[in-house]
Description:
Layout lengths: L1 H15 L3 H13 L2 E6 L2 E6 L1
Antiparallel strand pairs: 1-2
Amino acid sequence: DEQIEQLITARNEARAAKQWAEADRIRDELKAKGIILEDRSGETIWRRE
């Protein structure tokens, strides 16, 4: 779970910097691991598929 949190943090940083391709790459990497992301008012919630 720590690795997942690190990837989510990196994705949020990429989004804040408007690095959309990097944010999408991280999202796709997490999805391949069975992790679903939900962006909600300033926070990202994750769950397993």
